Amino acid sequence: MEQELLKQFYLGDENAFSLLYSKHAKGALLTAASILGSANDAEDCVQEAFCRAYMYRAQYNSAYPFEAWFYKILLNICRRKRYKLVNKSINEADEEALQYLAAQDTGARYTELYEAIQSLSHRHRECIVLKYLCGFSEKDIAQILKTNQNTVKSRLFKSRAALRKKLGEEDLQ
């Protein structure tokens, strides 16, 4: 079913594109908001990522998962957006993201976890978000970030250690 949907998407079928959007939009929004710290900016980036995915669908290689290809596009757009946001107030951006993500399905300790993740460097935060929010494997993350798989493992290890320290939890995996 997924292969047929991707085939139709590749051929320019707007219904297939709509189904792919429906399937991946929420996860993409959560990912972008976690990386950018702003719900409004996340929505802009997700919209742009889907537009680019449709425009450049001929470059999609069906030998690889659609999600990895799409998240590579999304991450690149988020990175460009993040650099443009340097002058934006961090507190304003954090508040926007907290409000947006709090409206999603989150637990009682979400705010504390969100703040701990936001305290990580952008490189470590990207790895954590892609691994635990999006569910990508270390191999897929390495492809998305265009880096070595051992670099991803190292960043995840350091990120988990920093989060354990910040949250005071021994069993954080």
Number of strands: 0
SSE-based structural type: mainly alpha
Report the mean per-residue pLDDT as an integer: 82
Largest sheet: none
Radius of gyration: 16 Å
| Count of structural domains | 1
Between the first and last Cα atoms, what is the distance in angstroms?
A: 33 Å
Count of helical regions: 9
The oligomeric state of the chains shown is single chain
Helical content class: over 70%
Low-confidence stretches: 87-94
| Fraction in beta strands | under 5%
Order of helices and strands: HHHHHHHHH
Describe the global form: globular
Summarize the structure.
The chain is 75% helix and 0% strand. It contains nine helices and no strands.
Any overview of this molecule?
The protein is an all-alpha fold. The chain has one domain (2-167). The chain has nine helices and no strands. Residues 87-94 have low confidence and may be disordered.
Write the layout of secondary structure elements.
Elements: H1 2-10, H2 14-36, H3 39-55, H4 66-84, H5 90-102, H6 110-118, H7 122-133, H8 138-145, H9 149-167
List keywords for this structure.
173 residues; mainly alpha
